Amino acid sequence: MVYWIHIARAIDRVTLHRDRCSEVPSSVSSSDFWEGGWFDYPDKDRALAAMEQAGTTDERKCALCKP
Ligand SMILES: [Zn+2]
């Protein structure tokens, strides 16, 4: 299982998704951890750690895929 986080700096939010969530884009263009974008992690612990490092105010889990 791969987990994805979506960093949206413009709205100060990071969201956790599971692999194959319909919100995860099929192809991820270049993204920068400090600028925001989509990032994949091989396990949930690493994804959660990355969410904390993102430093956004709002940390969410996707309501669609319920990671
Ligand atoms: Zn999702």
Polypeptide structure, described:
The protein is an alpha+beta fold. The chain has one domain (3-61). The protein has one helix and four strands, in the order βββαβ. The chain has one helix at 44-54, and strands at 3-8, 13-18, 37-41, 58-61. A four-stranded mixed beta sheet has the order 3-1-2-4, covered by helices on one side. β1 and β2 (13-18) form a beta hairpin. It is globular. The model has no long low-confidence stretch (mean pLDDT 93). The structure holds zinc ion.
Furnish the topology, listing elements before pairings.
Blueprint (H helix, E strand, L loop, with lengths): L2 E6 L4 E6 L18 E5 L2 H11 L3 E4 L6
The site of zinc ion has 6 residues, from loops.
Number of strands: 4
How many domain units? 1
Helix content: 10-25%
Order of helices and strands: EEEHE
Count of runs of 4 or more consecutive helical residues: 1
Q: What portion of residues belong to β-strands?
A: 25-35%
Q: Write down the overall geometry.
A: globular
Decide which structural class fits the backbone: alpha+beta
**Main β sheet profile:** 4 strands, mixed
Hetero groups in this structure are:
zinc ion
Ranges with pLDDT <50 over ≥5 residues?
A: none
Rounded to the nearest angstrom, the distance between the terminal CA atoms is 10 Å
Give the overall pLDDT as a whole number.
93
Rg measurement, Å: 11 Å
Strand order of the largest sheet: 3-1-2-4
